[in-house]
Design a protein that fits this description.
31% of the residues lie in helices and 37% in strands.
Length: 139
């Protein structure tokens, strides 16, 4: 399985990319001389990490037949400037799921499986500290 993207400069400080019938836009943050009209690559990176955790959770949710009333995954990429320039220093993620009481144990299991099998976090943790926490709210 391969995934790809091609971006075309928009003539200003960003680019667009057609992906699956959607027009994805990126732009440089204002702090770096951009116009800030669209997410910067760092925001898209954080969204990709969160999206991978979410879809991995959903995969196991379906296998375990877990009923969920709400699922949110947040990710924050911490950028630091070092002697050789900027780099992602750490990625913090939080999985928040809401279930009925009978599903609490399965929700915690799905959360752990998502942590364990998300291929993006498994790949980047070799280069950067990745922390994944979780919270189950029971109705």
């Amino acid at each position: 399985m391969n995934f790809s993207a091609e971006l075309e400069w928009d003539g200003k400080t960003g680019a667009t990319s057609p992906i699956k019938g959607q027009q994805l836009a990126v732009d440089m943050p204002v702090e770096f001389g951009g116009l800030g009209r669209a997410p910067c690559p760092d925001e898209l990176f954080a969204a990709s990490v969160a999206g991978c955790l979410l879809t991995t959770f959903l995969y196991f949710k379906n296998r375990l037949r877990l009923e969920v009333t709400q699922l949110k995954v947040g990710a924050q990429a911490k950028i630091e400037k070092g002697p050789e320039g900027y780099r992602i220093a750490e990625v913090e993620c939080e999985i928040r799921v809401e279930v009925t009481g009978a599903n609490e144990k399965a929700a915690k299991e799905c959360m752990e499986l998502a942590r364990k099998y998300c291929h993006i976090t498994r790949t980047i943790e070799e280069a950067v500290n990745v922390r994944v926490s979780g919270q189950v709210n029971v109705l």
